[in-house]
Amino acid sequence: MLDRNYKKIESDLIDWIRKKVKDAGCQGAVIGLSGGIDSSVTSLLCQKAFPENTLGLIMPCLSNPEDKIDAVKHAEKFGIKYKEINLSDPYQKLIQTINDYDSELDLEEVINNKNLAAAQGSLKLALANMKPRLRMTLLYYYANLNNYLVVGTDNRSELKLGYFTKYGDGGIDIAPLGNLVKLEVRGLARKMGIDPKIITKQPSAGLWDGQSDQDEIGLSYREIDYYIVDGEADAETAAKIEKIAAANRHKLELPAVPNF
């Protein structure tokens, strides 16, 4: 699986991005920079496709400070234009507004602690998913402002599982990494000279303190990727992957409408 011609993949993806943007009548690309491997690879592909018309947005939202540092270093290393807009206050104010209007919820501890540690279960996920949806709003603001496309960072592994926030990081125009599983994204990142710290960082959506993809999914990307590409997995792992994929399939489809 990892024995790929990453130089050719890089060239083909740059051409593909350029064509998709031009076919849409747009002039460039806007990408969220999280300090993670997927956003780093995607932003560099876009910068090579549109050196003067690529914009990275760094949007901390009660996030790990190291992620912002990594995102800035990446952008500056490769000459990617970027803006930093901190969404922590708008996020907190939105939670406060919900708390003011919904007497059945007690969000004061979440608001006072400025993290999601106090929330549990469905409430924790509901509040966490507001973060990528706020980021999506800002990405489309700058896309509309500059006549750019919003370029997503979702890879094939995430798309297979539906492991993204609907109308959040799934609210995009194109997904250049959509045919590369996570391990292949790492191979491409090495070829492109991405910082090794970013490549080896534990994958995380950054939804809450200590959150990691593997803990949330319950599987490693190695298990997921080998199943997707080669069909290699024990029965339990295969069943778990297909169960998650089936539950999240709606995220990859247009809204259902009656056929009568």
Automatic annotation (TrEMBL):
One of its GO terms (biological process) is NAD+ biosynthetic process. It comes from Halanaerobium congolense. Transmembrane segments: none annotated. ATP binds at G32, L33, S34, G35, G36, I37, D38, S39, T153, K182, S204. Its EC number is 6.3.1.5. Pathway: Cofactor biosynthesis; NAD(+) biosynthesis; NAD(+) from deamido-NAD(+) (ammonia route): step 1/1. Deamido-NAD(+) binds at R133, K166, D173, H250, K251. Belongs to the NAD synthetase family. It comes from the Bacteria. InterPro entries: NAD/GMP_synthase, NAD_synthase, NH(3)-dep_NAD(+)_synth, Rossmann-like_a/b/a_fold. GO terms for molecular function: ATP binding; glutaminase activity; metal ion binding; NAD+ synthase (glutamine-hydrolyzing) activity; NAD+ synthase activity. The lineage of its organism: Bacteria, Bacillati, Bacillota, Clostridia, Halanaerobiales. Keywords: ATP-binding, Ligase, Magnesium, Metal-binding, NAD, Nucleotide-binding. Homodimer. Gene3D superfamilies: HUPs. Catalyzes the ATP-dependent amidation of deamido-NAD to form NAD. Uses ammonia as a nitrogen source. This is NH(3)-dependent NAD(+) synthetase. It is an enzyme of class 6 (ligase). The keyword NAD applies. Mg(2+) binds at D38, E158.
